[in-house]
Amino acid sequence: MRPSLIRSIRSFSSSSSSPERKVAVLGAAGGIGQPLSLLMKLNPLVSSLSLYDIAGTPGVAADVSHINTRAQVAGFVGEEQLGKALEGSDVVIIPAGVPRKPGMTRDDLFNINAGIVKSLCVAIAKYCPNALVNMISNPVNSTVPIASEVFKKAGTYDEKKLFGVTTLDVVRAKTFYAGKAKVPVEEVNVPVVGGHAGITILPLFSQATPASNALADEDLKALTKRTQDGGTEVVEAKAGKGSATLSMAYAGAIFADACLKGLNGVPDIVECSFVQSTITELPFFASKVRLGKNGVEEVLGLGSLSDYEKQGLESLKPELKSSIEKGIKFAQGN
Fold first, then answer.
1. Nearest 10 degrees: CA dihedral of 249, 40, 28, 35?
2. Does 66 qualify as catalytic in the annotation?
3. Predicted local confidence at residue 109, as pLDDT
4. Rounded Cα–Cα distance for residues 95 and 6 (Å)
5. What is the pLDDT of residue 198?
């Protein structure tokens, strides 16, 4: 997972030979949605950028549309325009919903965001059933299973095309590891597996590259905890004024860029993502995934784990299992 987005932004000439690709952002006027819309407008692989929200999108679309890059921008507002926003999309990114506030757990978010995600996925199944769906709305451990159930009910479910975006955990793990190991951050890679909340986030620092002998076990434990608590760190620093929006938008743009490259046939695109999986006994799990023309080409195994990571893996399973079941139950019951 290199900072390839930045490089591709700088090489606009690549756009002329790229196929036409439509990307829709659902929740485009929100705290994540606005910077994410900006970053997708800068991506030369995007030819059409569709921005949807329940309010505020005409302004965001007008603003972003003035940027002199390839993507043609259209704004859509309100449920009656959702179908138009989605039609023909290759990738749909969903940052819609409410953010975490101080003292709020990801479960507190559940009832609000679960309903929003469910209704958006009903529309995706109807208007762009073949799109790759990038789920950012929290709690991802539950919203991805909700989406899968909605798509199954509509008869459109393809497990290769549904992704929980866990890239921010990877971005944080890389940043924190580079700082502690004193290695150039742009060269760092750290797989992060499990889920996308608290202890379900398991960074595999034993597999980090470049390897470092400078880190003691205590350092690795502290890095793991900081990666797991990264979201809370930002919520507290913003002191009631929001959650991680800018870094999340960056991570979402990196993952969408990888999806687009995969669709376009670029080889060896590998990112971590929360997907349907047989890597563990759980039905969904985040691990390294090879992306291609159909979405998921291959879900890659966990590789060798340290004893600390093995322990972390066993500890996270009950919580992740219950979050997945909560999502499935919500989708089936409503």
1. 40
2. no
3. 80
4. 21
5. 96
Options 106, 118, 196, 326, the catalytic residue: 196
DSSP H helices, 104-163, are 110-127, 140-154
The label of the residue with tokens 């469910």 reads 118
Report phi then psi at 52, rounded to 5: -125, 140
Q: Which of 127, 182, 166 is nearest to 284 (CA)?
A: 166
Q: How far apart are CA 45 and CA 219, in angstroms?
A: 39
Distance CA 36, CA 31 (A): 9
b/e per residue 257-294 (b: at least 16 CB within 10 A): bbbbbbbbeeeebbbbbbbbbeebebbbbbbbbebbee
**Do 261 and 291 touch, CB atoms closer than 8 A?**
yes
What six digits make up the tokens of 123?
Answer: 């529309």
What's the token pair of residue 138?
């929290």
Q: Mention every residue, 6+ apart, whose C-beta is less than 8 A from residue 136.
A: 32, 93, 94, 95, 165, 248, 252
Q: What is the largest CA-CA distance in the chain?
A: 57
* Mean pLDDT, contiguous 10-residue spans, the chain (334 residues): 52 65 98 98 98 98 98 98 98 92 75 94 98 97 98 98 98 98 97 98 98 95 98 92 95 98 98 98 98 98 98 98 97 90
pTM score: 0.95
According to DSSP, residue 189 is labeled B
Q: What is the pLDDT of residue 3?
A: 54
